[in-house]
Amino acid sequence: MITIAVANQKGGEGKTTTSLNLAMGLARRNLKTLLIDMDPQANSTGIFLNPETVDKDLSHLFQNATGLKDIIVPIYNDCLWIAPSSLRLAEMETVSVNSVEAPYILRDSLAAIGKDFEFVIIDCPPSLSIFTVNSLVASNFVLIPLQAEKFSMDGIMGLQQTISSIKKRINPDLEILGALITQLKPQTLLTKTILPVLGKYFRIFEHTISDGVAVGESHLAKKSVFDYNRSSRQSQEYEGFIEEVLVELKK
After folding, report:
1. Helix 213-220 to helix 233-250 angle, to the nearest 10 degrees?
2. For residue 235, how many other CB atoms are within 10 A of its CB?
3. C-alpha 39: how far from its chain's center?
């Protein structure tokens, strides 16, 4: 089982979009995939389910009330499952952070179902909260979606420090898979200036996701970009990105 945390402490970088489309793209390749919505805003959950009517969600896991196997539900044939979130998860942060076992809750629960999935994709919250820490402790790789903008770069240092600390103290196998540039405007001077700088910090995927309407419209339609408009430019870009990820993981 390969577990990938999709993380960036800054919001609006394409984290949820990348999480759900990466998970769907893997499932469309008949790779059994679990999407974990670790964000209390529950945006990934909301694409596939109604967070307000879900019987059990990740808040129950952090209450030690149940395991992941009792939370996950199938959403695409038998190849894509989701561990849903809700606003109730936010209430668990202050409770969980006081526990010695807090950073290991997700990792330990994944161990019980790891043989059931080939991939686990974790949509992390836009913060360095206990939920992001749980995600990094449980993961093999970190994928960082970001825009080619100055403010995107400003938030990278904090995430880098968190990853380095967790790698040193808790999860020595954690690696940065790379950075995916989203909402790209390729002809702007800012993009041409910042991309070489970003490349000094991380491996930058060759495939990028361009700025366009298909992604936003797919969210409104509550579909992946593949199901909404398979011929759209963004759909093709995500397909290329997923193939690049699979090649990278085979190295």
Report:
1. 90
2. 22
3. 9
First-to-last alpha carbon distance for the chain, in angstroms, is 16
Strands (E), the chain: 2-6, 33-37, 73-76, 80-83, 119-123, 141-146, 175-181
The SS3 call for residue 162 is: helix
Residue 126 makes CB contacts below 8 A (sequence gap 6+) with 8, 9, 10, 11, 12, 13, 15, 39
Say if CB 182 and CB 238 are below 8 A apart. no
Over residues 72-125, the pLDDT tens digits come to: 999 988 899 999 998 888 877 766 556 677 888 999 999 888 788 999 999 999
Query: 98: exposed, middle or buried (C-beta count within 10 Å: 0-12, 13-18, 19+)?
Result: exposed
Rounded distance between C-alpha atoms, residue 140 and residue 182, angstroms? 22
Q: What angle do the packed helices 15-28 and 233-250 form, to 10 degrees?
A: 70
- The span from the CA of 216 to the CA of 222, in Å, is 10
- What pLDDT, on the 0 to 100 scale, is given for residue 199? 67
CB 247 within 8 Å of CB 71: no
The pLDDT of residue 22 is 96
For the chain, list residues with pLDDT below 50.
189
Distance CA 84, CA 54 (A): 8
Q: Token digits for 19? A: 């999480």
